[in-house]
Specification:
The protein has 312 residues and is α+β, with helices and mostly antiparallel strands. It has two domains: 99 residues, Phosphorylase Kinase, domain 1, CATH 3.30.200; 202 residues, Aminoglycoside phosphotransferase (APH), C-terminal lobe (Aminoglycoside 3'-phosphotransferase, Chain: A, domain 2, Alpha-Beta Complex). Helices cover 42% and strands 15% of the residues. The strands form three sheets. It has a five-stranded antiparallel beta sheet with strand order 1-2-3-5-4, with helices on both faces. A hairpin with an 8-residue loop joins strand 1 and strand 2. The protein is globular.
């Protein structure tokens, strides 16, 4: 297997990966019959679940995130009010790293959110903001993963943002404004004080919820392989996309739950959020437009920010 394209073509083939599962289970004293392949959510790596006991993840070498994932799992164990996977063991099979973790019970937020009433959404948004604040604050002063890549990461995102937006539905007029808009962003985003561990991918698949006495609550955070040291506000984009894009009370509840940050409940806060969205690594801004308001006739990025992130 020599290319990502070849790997992608084989990703869903259960028979290809069964020998690797058997070898991992033999090495770690696990029963392979209890682990079933997980493909419903897609994914980068090969994952087997044995609910409610354990998860095996075979990391594709084309995406070398195993050291980061394992370091973050070790650090975050028992540090939050919600559950995160705990690292059980790790190793490699023919130079493919693997990670075995505990299984985190819960229902992905994407499956719960559509059935919630407005009051529940506001409550859970505030709760999610508080949980993400816990995640960030737990890491302050700790060197969990490499700390020297944030400025370079941002510089790369500035150069690739325009390309990511092209073909997404955003007008050429708006796309032409992106370089100047990013140039006007607060320079402090490149030098966060303090730098924190950011998850980078708090999407609805990675936020788990549990129901007790008729009430849903945030109960777990998973899939930490894209974590890095950077600016806490970068995590706000995917986290708020898990909620109701363009819903002012829900968005404001999230930021009230999170507490003090550079994103204020103001027009300036809306513009700052759009700046972070333009710097995100995998989701064009127009995806948030489609999810939140369907479409937009905004002629400036400032106008667009107020429509998608109405914080004032």
């Amino acid at each position: 297997m020599n290319t990502r394209a070849e790997y992608s073509g084989l990703w869903e083939r259960a028979d290809i990966w069964e020998p690797a599962k058997a070898e991992i289970c033999a090495a770690e004293g696990l029963d392979p019959s209890g682990f079933a392949r997980e493909t419903r959510s897609g994914g980068t790596h090969i994952v087997w679940l044995n609910a409610p006991l354990a998860v095996i993840k075979l990391h594709c070498p084309f995406f070398p995130d195993a050291p980061v994932e394992q370091a973050v799992l070790r650090f975050m164990a028992n540090r939050l009010s919600v559950e995160t996977p705990r690292l059980v063991c790790s190793g490699s099979v023919e130079r493919w790293p693997y990670t075995v973790t505990t299984f985190v019970s819960g229902t992905p937020m994407r499956d719960v959110w559509p059935g919630l009433d407005h009051a529940s959404r506001v409550r859970i948004a505030r709760q999610l903001g508080a949980v993400i604040r816990e995640w960030h604050d737990a890491s302050v002063g700790h060197e969990i993963v490499a700390t020297n890549g944030w400025r370079e990461f941002l510089a790369q995102r500035v150069t690739t943002s325009v390309k990511l937006q092209q073909g997404s539905g955003m007008s050429a007029r708006l796309i032409s404004q992106i370089p100047a808009y990013l140039a006007d962003q607060d320079p402090s985003i490149a030098e966060p004080h303090p730098p924190v561990l950011i998850h980078t991918d708090f999407k609805p698949d990675h936020i788990l919820m549990s129901k007790a006495e008729g009430r849903w609550d945030v109960s777990g955070l998973i899939d930490v392989g894209d974590s890095m040291i950077g600016h806490r506000e970068y995590d706000f984009i995917k986290a708020t996309s898990s909620l109701s894009p363009s819903n002012r009370p829900v968005l404001r509840a999230f930021f009230q739950g999170y507490g003090e940050s550079g994103v204020t409940l103001s027009r300036e806060g809306s513009e700052r959020m759009l700046g972070w969205a333009l710097l995100h690594f995998d989701t064009p801004v127009w995806a948030y437009v489609r999810d939140g308001i369907g479409t937009s006739t905004a002629t400036t990025l400032s106008q667009l920010s107020a429509e998608v992130w109405p914080l004032k």
